[in-house]
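Bench notes, afternoon.
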Amino acid sequence: MNRVLLVEDERDLSRIVCDTLSQQGYDVTAAFDGIEGLTKYRAEGADLVVADVMMPRLDGFAMAREIRRISSGVPIIFLTAKSSIDDVEEGFGIGANDYLKKPFELRELIVRIKALLREKNTGIRHGSSIKIGKFTFEMATQLLTSGGDQTLLTYFEAKVLEQLAANIGRTVDASALMMAVWQRDDIYNRNSLHGFIHKLRRYLASDPSVAIINQRGIGYMLTVKT
């Protein structure tokens, strides 16, 4: 059973998240500020840490720095209303693995926890960056950069683009794409996939050499004209 340390000062939210993760089979320990979270991590450890950023006594960033001194490998997810690119870059610079903006859906948090634990347990790691035409895409920070312009993608936008970018010039089967992103192929996720493809096309529109082609009835292909 994977052990999750949840550090969140909003007690109602903490209770809801703890109950949900427990129902999913995780062994969850709750703390309500950064000092308590750090104390519990030092005493008990964890397979993954989920932490708010704005907390009393010791904020999530400061707590994460201390946890990183103890363990360089434990995955850390930040839950926060702070969503500027500067804040996100600071979080990833500290060593966070993921960043979820409040308010969030519990289902999305569960997907991210599963993905990070799977990477930890199998040794899989994201590549540092991928070139897509004039863009640079960094999965670790979910940033799509072109010149001085930066777009911070959502987690699911980044996961879809990662799958397409790893197969430039090849069709990615829609079912395989959904399994890679959500671990489930159903009509709900199929509709979500269409929406994320539409958003990614808009983000990439400034480079006419880049296109996401719909292979009807099969899937999608990311192409870059040279």
